[in-house]
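Researcher: Here's a chain I'd like modeled. Treat it as a single chain, no partners, no ligands.
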Amino acid sequence: MKKNNISQKLYIPKELQEIIKEYGEKCVDCKQCMIKCPMLNDFCNSPKKLLQELAEGDFDAILPYSCALCDWCSEVCPKGIDFKKIFYSMRKDVAKNHTETLKKVRYGVVKYHQKNSFSKIFTANHQPLSKRDDGKVKKVFLPGCSLASYSPMLVMKTYEYLRNNFNDMGIILKCCGKPTYDMGDVRSFENYFNSLEQDIEAMGATEVIVACENCYKTLSENYKRGKVKSLWSVMAEKGVPEKVKGSYSNLNYTFSLHDPCSIRDEKEIHESVRFILNEIGIKNKEFKFSKDKTSCCGFGGMIGVTNSDISKAQMKKRASEAEGDYIVSYCQSCVEAMNVAGKESVHILDLIFNEQVIEENIFKQKDIKTINKWINRYKLKKIIASMK
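Model: Modeled as a single isolated chain. Structure tokens:
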């Protein structure tokens, strides 16, 4: 078992025990769930035996916070056994009934992030003059926290691209609340998400275009007042900027495309990203496990905070599977994870809008310290707030 172990046993609610018992009876111990799972191999040799042990009613507190919530298990299990459902139910129970335990898995780090991500210091929106009589926008761009932390320039160039394609496009710099949700604190998540929803509604938007795959998943599951669309679907439909079409065709390098686990079932997004890479001339060498069978980058389920050993081990595992010269992804957290693991990686927006990448072919992002990520978000907030 990886360290970060909390020497504390917690009781599993009776209703969840029944689900676990049923899963234990169904499990044929084929171990398909263990093949690409970031954590099961560290806690058991047999999923069936683990289920039987959990059905007895208690668990090590660190166990559910070692799950990346990546859905690999439910994707491959022939019997429909869902460890994510079990572990996330445990997280919710801890958040509701064991606040001291929640502190031990560093929930304070997540709360700090979320408090800032929804504060006036780091949030902003822009609603340009519209051709509509009521001055409202039809669409808003939600770049997400990770991309904003990495590059205000990429966010603004993407926003400019969208405004060139749509007459009344706005932007909202705010978090979707997924870090809080992943920790199991559903009540706080609902408050955060309602705040974002209110901003979208105040701007009059009926469609949200998102660059972050975690935001896409969160909004797709919780936003009921309008449409949610991936930036990559939009870009595949509208086309990449003319100046980058085919611009990488003469490269002698190949890129391994990493699909984020949060959108493993979104076939349209998978194909849109591949279309975009083909448009700009990138040679893609697929991971053996990709699209719906993709493997987590190591940041899923907030395990980078709650169990850093498992997180780092998974980053190295995933990076080692890349057969290309570089890795490209369309999730900034995934790009960062691959760079941390030692594999040079870029975001797809780097390939499209980052002049240094385009002109000098530098396919590795610089390491950005946490304080500088917040500085970047503040800079972006000031840019958006000053727009007319």
